[in-house]
Design a protein that fits this description.
By secondary structure, the chain is α/β, with parallel strands linked by helices. The protein has one domain: STAS domain (Transcription Regulator spoIIAA). Helix 1 runs parallel beside helix 2.
């Protein structure tokens, strides 16, 4: 995991991840978000040639867990064969926003985090328009 700034993690997934490594990824990310008050995570899967149904489920579950912890997740780098395989198998990454590359993922993540922060403000709270809070 790479901590980009105080609120953002970038997590690259590597080839040939076995089930234990996938579960360790999920535990490490959720623990980091909780203990370090991370608000956004980009998971980069560009090194993966195959995403099976188990990994797709773990990615969906991880995104849901992070949302419950108050963080957002964006997945980037899905290769065309991976997209084709997921669609053919009937598996979708339903709860995970996706982006073409890391740059676009970070832009999308900033938008998601900003939107979530704005929703969390109490009604009438003017901090959303206060430049010192951004």
């Amino acid at each position: 995991m790479l901590r980009l700034d105080a609120r953002t993690l970038i997590v690259p997934l590597h080839e040939d991840m076995h089930d234990d490594a996938i579960l360790r990824f999920q535990q490490d990310v959720t623990t980091a978000v909780s203990t370090k008050q991370i608000s956004g995570v980009v998971v980069d899967v560009s090194a993966l040639d195959i995403v099976d149904s188990y990994l797709a489920r773990i990615l969906n579950d991880t995104a849901a867990m992070l949302k419950l912890l108050g963080a957002q997740m964006v997945l980037c780098g899905i290769q065309p064969p991976v997209a084709l395989t997921l669609v053919e198998m009937g598996h979708e990454l339903l709860n995970v926003p996706t982006a073409f590359n890391l740059e676009r993922a970070l832009t999308q993540l900033r938008t998601l985090v900003h939107g979530a922060d704005a929703e969390a403000l109490p009604e009438g709270d003017d901090r959303e328009n206060d430049p010192s809070t951004h």
